[in-house]
């Protein structure tokens, strides 16, 4: 479940995630979803890796008997790192190796369990543009770069149906359903794909200021929350929205972040 977003724009990187995790609990013969709204899914790191952040979504926990969130492993992960600063690619490789090991130690071999996905984003010293890597544990652990140099884009995942409808202009399941139901040939399918692209919303990331990218990420997450609130289905997106930015030669900076507190009036 959940919804995580990383936007690579010309002025820097934006990382955003909400705070709900959903666990499946068996009550008698009836499986029920149980939610917790204070999870940390936007991860930051201490010196010397302060120019790197990670957003995680998908499978909420690792461990069949004693489940733990990705955030709960961070002290152990950081203790395993070398004292010198890692490149973004090197950091992505390290976090992939660490969480793949945790998965292999405590998760059952079940194809129905979704991947725990990590989007690693950050800047190498003095480089002009940030880097973004996608990691999917356990099925695609090799970090895959998302857009090189000045290729700007949005990396997102989790419960993204509402966000995809906004971006694409239609439900992401629609093309395949229509192709199959209408029995389209390869030539007809190619023509169909070309025609349906005209309904995609045009977002010129190459001209968006960093503030616009922050607003865009918040819009997608908040809209998903609101849509789920009025619809029937698993409401896997909720809680506070954490947002951070990373700019060239600067540390990760939280723009908004939930805080631990006592009772609120």
Description of the molecule:
There is one protein chain. The chain has six helices and 14 strands. A hairpin with a 6-residue loop joins strand 13 (242-246) and strand 14 (253-256). 28% of the residues lie in helices and 29% in strands. It has a single domain (3-159, 206-256), classed as Glutamine Phosphoribosylpyrophosphate, subunit 1, domain 1. It has a five-stranded antiparallel sheet with strand order 12-1-2-13-14, with helices on one face. The protein starts with a strand and ends in a 9-residue tail after the last strand. It is globular and about 60 Å long. With 265 residues, the protein is an alpha+beta fold.
Question: How would you summarize the topology of this molecule?
Answer:
Elements: E1 3-9, E2 12-17, E3 21-27, E4 30-36, E5 42-44, E6 52-58, E7 61-62, E8 68-69, H1 74-79, H2 88-106, E9 116-122, E10 131-137, E11 140-145, E12 153-158, H3 161-168, H4 174-182, H5 186-196, H6 210-229, E13 242-246, E14 253-256
